[in-house]
Amino acid sequence: MLTLHHLRIGRSIFTVWLLEEVGCEYQLKEYLRNPETMRAQDDLKAVHPLGKSPVIEDDDLMLTESGTITAYVLDKYDSEHRFHPRRDDLKTWARYHQWVTYAEGSVFAPLLLKMLTLRSTDHPVITPFSDAEIALHFTHITNQLGDKDYILGDTLSGADFGMAYMVSMAERLGQLEPYPSLQAYLDRCRARPAFIQAINKAVE
Amino acid sequence: MLTLHHLRIGRSIFTVWLLEEVGCEYQLKEYLRNPETMRAQDDLKAVHPLGKSPVIEDDDLMLTESGTITAYVLDKYDSEHRFHPRRDDLKTWARYHQWVTYAEGSVFAPLLLKMLTLRSTDHPVITPFSDAEIALHFTHITNQLGDKDYILGDTLSGADFGMAYMVSMAERLGQLEPYPSLQAYLDRCRARPAFIQAINKAVE
């Protein structure tokens, strides 16, 4: 059975959501943050040397990186292709995969910068840089979403797990107010039974 | 024919290298940075709204995100699987893909933080954060490399294009001195005929 190493509260709740949507069996191992630094502690480092979450284990496979975990879980458990396109249509797959990797590869860094400056103090270069990059990316995501329900259409796909995390991070950092359609998108994701089930299992 | 939109000088030189290794035909469209801000200019925004590079076009497909571009190019042109594993062995593929996405998804952000503080001034939280994260990731990459020639073994793979870029970025930021095996790895990548050809075509 697949095991998810889950650091409360953070990124990996969106992997719990993925597993709930897919409906596969899994075991949840929970870890707590250091209450002072709010960072992961040594128990997670004993699982994987980076000491970050999510990490999944499946027999002899240990896997990090949210986008890769999404790809692996969907390849293994979404055999009906409800959440990811078939790979034999390479262009459709590439367009989909671009949105899976865009979240971690491009949107995350400016949000991290914003989080670090909000926790402490502004910086003459970093603060305007992160403001401009957040505006660029969240405008781009807004345009992609348009009046669709989810990032790639009117049904949920693998691209939504990473993107909804980025939108939730922007909300937590007070950056979402200019993007009401993204707030509605996040609320739509949160209202899904699988998301509610994930919160019940992994947060409450 | 595939077109690569290439911003001089930056990330996309590693996509030129990928295309040279694969040996496919491609067209290179070059863009210059604003000499004052060192950032991309509006001509690249006319190609794609994010105004970043690399971007590839292949008939009606427009694709961003380095890791996805690597996956697409190898799926389409590396039919002999010289540089990427077959997908029917899902665990091997996932382990490989994890290293493709790790570069952009985890290693890049701390290097970006370091670049921004080096260009301007230190920050009481961001500077120690980026120092610790760079040490964490570059130790992890060093351990993964071990005494192999490339990240996943003694032959080049799709995981090396992104990773070599991260190592080159660390070199440029003066962060590579504690990691002599990574310097040797970068030098090994740069000595490959396809890398030299990429530099000749896209930099000189």
Polypeptide structure, described:
Two copies of one chain form a homodimer. Chain A is of the alpha+beta class. Chain A has two domains: 91 residues, Glutaredoxin (3-Layer(aba) Sandwich); 103 residues, Up-down Bundle (Glutathione S-transferase Yfyf (Class Pi), Chain A, domain 2), CATH 1.20.1050. Chain A is 54% helix and 10% strand. Chain A is built from eight helices and four strands, in the order βαβαββαααααα. A four-stranded mixed β-sheet of chain A has the order 2-1-3-4, with helices on one face. In chain A, β1, α1 and β2 form a beta-alpha-beta unit. In chain A, α4 packs parallel to α6. Chain A is globular and about 50 Å long. The two termini of chain A are 23 Å apart. Chains A and B meet through α3, α4 and α5 of A and α3, α4 and α5 of B.
Draw up the topology in text.
The structure is a homodimer of 204-residue chains.
Chain A: E1 2-8, H1 13-22, E2 26-32, H2 42-45, E3 55-58, E4 61-63, H3 66-77, H4 90-119, H5 126-145, H6 159-172, H7 180-190, H8 193-202
Parallel strand pairs in A: 1-2
Antiparallel strand pairs in A: 1-3, 3-4
Fill in the keyword field for this structure.
8 helices, 204 residues, Glutathione S-transferase Yfyf (Class Pi), Chain A, domain 2, 4 strands, homodimer, globular, Glutaredoxin, alpha+beta
Number of strands of chain A: 4
Name the helix and strand elements of chain A from N-terminus to C-terminus, one letter apiece. EHEHEEHHHHHH
First-residue to last-residue Cα separation of chain A? 23 Å
The structure class of chain A reads: alpha+beta
Report the C-alpha radius of gyration of chain A, rounded. Answer: 17 Å
- Provide the CATH top-level class of the largest domain in chain A: Mainly Alpha
Biggest contact = A-B, 49 and 49 residues
- Principal-axes shape call of chain A: globular
Indicate the CATH architecture of the largest domain in chain A.
Answer: Up-down Bundle
